[in-house]
Amino acid sequence: MDDLWLIGIGTGSPAHVTLEGLQALRDATVILVPHKGEGKDALAALRYGIIEASGAQAEVRSFDYPVRDPALPYNRRVIEWHDEIARRWVAAMQSAPPGPVALLVWGDPALYDSTLRIAERMVPRPRLRVVPGITAIQALTAAHAIPLNTVNGPVKITTGRQLRDHGWPEDEETVVVMLDAECSFQGLDPEGLQIWWGAYLGSEAQALEAGSLAKVGGRIMERRAELRARHGWIMDTYLLRRLCCPEGASQLRRAR
Question: Which has fewest Cβ within 10 Å: 23, 191, 204, 218?
């Protein structure tokens, strides 16, 4: 089995790809590009744009992503989905010329991404190399020009599902929420919470909202629905912070 290079490509801007990532694309023999179905051609187009901008001369192979079976329980659904993705990677790599095969990974392969877990399912298992990328969290805080943490303060990174099921994490000051298709912040008591939200971070379509959750939460939900309908897909994340310190209050005034 060939070497498989997992290259983090940031959140949509070719400028997010590191110098190491650009060189890896140029050194690869084959680059795999997933196609995720009708209405999501823009995701593949972004990857093709990054490949072109890198100057890579590799053979580019596309493959179709499977869909999850909604009839299965969540955990079983994900396991079977990952198994099928691994099989499609192996199939796409068949008869590849000698040299490394590269796969472009949205954001960073290590943060709320299943690429590394899927690679472990491949038979035979390739030799892995991971090239880190800009995360959605970095793109979000940069776009809003805010620090991720307060002074000496902890940060909780979680998912929309966890926020819906368990509410605000106990004793946390700053919470970053990813993979949230249902605007799970609407289930929280908005008192004292501020939010920084961003979609299509780093791309030409970037959209931002910030302010007190009570005031902008509804607007974020409306804007998210409108953007998803317009583009056919959406990737967004947000940071929530309690107004429990002067630093938090100062950031909220700037957000307004």
Answer: 204
**CATH classification of the domain holding 210:** 3.30.950.10
The answer to whether the bond into 100 is cis (omega within 30° of 0) is no
Sheet-wide strand order for 59-64: 59-64, 30-35, 101-105, 3-8, 127-131
Q: How many residues does the chain have?
A: 256
**At 81, which amino acid appears?**
W
User: pTM for the complete prediction?
Assistant: 0.88
The whole-angstrom separation of Cα 157 and Cα 71 is 29
CB 15 within 8 A of CB 111: no
- Of the residues 134, 157, 185, which one is the last residue of a structural domain? 134
d(CA 96, CA 105): 20
190-195 mean pLDDT: 96
Beta bridge pairs of residue 3 = 127
Whether 47 and 117 map to the same domain: the answer is: yes
- Number of other residues whose CB lies within 10 A of the CB of residue 106: 20
Question: Residue type at 243?
Answer: L
pLDDT tens digits for range 66-112 = 999 989 998 999 999 999 999 999 999 998 899 999 999 999 999 99
Q: Measured between alpha carbons, how far is 44 from 22 in angstroms, rounded to an integer?
A: 18
pLDDT digits (tens, 9 = 90+) for 47-58: 999 999 999 999
Amino acid in the structure at residue 2: D
Same domain for 118 and 145? no
**pLDDT tens by residue, 166-181:** 999 999 999 999 999 9
- Bridge partners (DSSP) of residue 194 are 212, 241
